[in-house]
Specification:
alpha+beta; Glycosyltransferase; 4 domains; five-stranded mixed β-sheet; about 10% strand
Amino acid sequence: MSNHKHTNKLINETSPYLLQHAHNPVNWYPWGDEAIERSRAEDKPILLSIGYSACHWCHVMEHESFEDEQIASLMNQNFISIKVDREERPDIDSIYMNAVQMMIGHGGWPLTVFLTPELKPFYGGTYFPPIDSRGLPGFTRILLAIADSYQTRKDDVAGSADAITDELRKANRFHGSAEMLTANVLDQAYVGLGRNFDSVEGGFGAAPKFPPSMSLMFLLRQQARTHTTAPLEMAELTLTKMAGGGMYDQLGGGFHRYSVDAHWLVPHFEKMLYDNALLARTYLYAYQATRNELYRRIAEETLDYVVRDLTDRSGGFYSSEDADSEGEEGKFYVWTKAEVLEILGPGDGEVVCDYFNVSGEGNFEGGASILNTPVSLEETALSHGIDSDQLRKTINAAKKRLFNAREERVRPGRDDKILAAWNGLMLTAFAEAASILGRDDYRAIAERNANFILDSLCKNGRLLRTYKNGQAKLNGYIEDYAYVAEGLLALYEATFEEQYLHRAGELADAMIEHFSDESDAGFFFTSNDHEQLITRMKEFFDNATPSGNSVASLTLLKLSLLTGEDKYQRPAIAVLRMMREAMERFPSAFGYMLGALDFYLSEPKEIAIIGDPSSHEVSNFLEIINSQFIPNKVLALAPDSRPADEASIPLLKDKAAVGGKPTVYVCRNYTCLAPAVTDEELAQRLAQ
């Protein structure tokens, strides 16, 4: 074992990000009583640094500043330094990110915030270079100035901290609308999205471009609701451009975090579990809506990437992979033309380079190329005088050879902590893929993940946030409960194992009991028995991930239909009423919540199947149902061996097989159409 000159209090943490800093010369503490009490006892301000493992600039600041003995000495003399993994503690990150955005007008990671011993923020920023550079003040200068201000102008610091804290406590406070919830909200949101749509490259706005999964889901819903072509065209352009860009890993599957340019070429190379969960679902829905095999392929390759590189033997899913390897961003993923030709030879190599846009001069740093497909396979075949089918075989064979060669490279670092919320997102993706694509292997992966969550991250009916090396810890947040409950519902509809529905209901009950605002609508980010912070936040905006309130709303509405329990519907509708005006005005910030509103307004289809799930007839029924994009539905099944009056799911009660044959009931508001016993009858009922 190597000897380290320095070891700090982070050495006992499980977060890979915190452990990366455990041998800095900085006297880092994890967030907790020990650091806070020391700050108060010594009357020193807290230097709070927040980041995450896949964050490129977090690594840069660590190398430049936190590994520097002189800078560390300044930090140790004048501050109590606390390091936080934002993925483990989004509650802390959310509060202090809001504070920094108030102070300087923008945020990001690494997040650097200075707090009083009472945890009130008084100064902050993001990345600081070690010395003045590119218009940014050096971290050394910042440390000296803050230390001096705290010692010589303590009243001014306290006044500033109080003012910022007061503003934080007012943040994210919305008031319900007196107007009715109508489809006009959805239509106005669609118009708003259209104003910012890039009709050439897809997506919204200019560079940088983030994958707009939730807005695309809403566009697909809008097409299904209005039967107009424009929303689908917007979604398809974006999905096709992203799939052909460098933001998609053309060899290994899966998406990088975002594109630094407007045409999806140059990515920020980290891969996040949540992006790939949301994008896999979006491509699955697009496949249902269009039957375009490209979308199926991208969804499957993305999920297969997760199985291969982000799945723990326990069944849990890891959090992310870094952008960097060997100290260089993207080095694992990019190619020179010489490297490709060496592996494939000059014949196939030239045409493969042409297809993947690999050139001698490159499209990235140092003459390297990011693989992307700006020209279709058919156009490439035509330009080389090759048959399209033959070129497809050549490309597929070349991808395998290049992938195998890439596997010999030094891999980017992997953050192997397992987060409840992000696992819930990916659970939903695998469960839905199992249903939509008829993939039993995906169903098995989803069941294994659900059982891992329920066995390892649940304790006394409550969720824990994070798991690593056999240790689960930290209270779950609203997003943990909402995402996992949604995943369990999706898994119920993929397996019809009622235990998953019941466990989803238990999490929903805990959500309502521990996160509801008893004096207003909406769910707090933290539970009522959580550690007390300087404010208790609510989050409604759908950013990189959907807000807990958005997912909770949709999940509770579905649970209400399946269970017949009004207690689930009421808080969901209250959230939608509260956010009515905001959804209309800022649709790009509410993509998932707009989906919940669409579900509520649509009179969802309630589909009850009576019959043996392993029978040929029921398999056909499920294929018909799942092959269509029907976003607003719930699905339940009872084997015909169970008496109808003993069904534990209200949707199934008093429904029986007609003539002893497997039967499907398609209902709305518990009013059912005539039962269907043939494939043709079911297709007719679904179209009504």
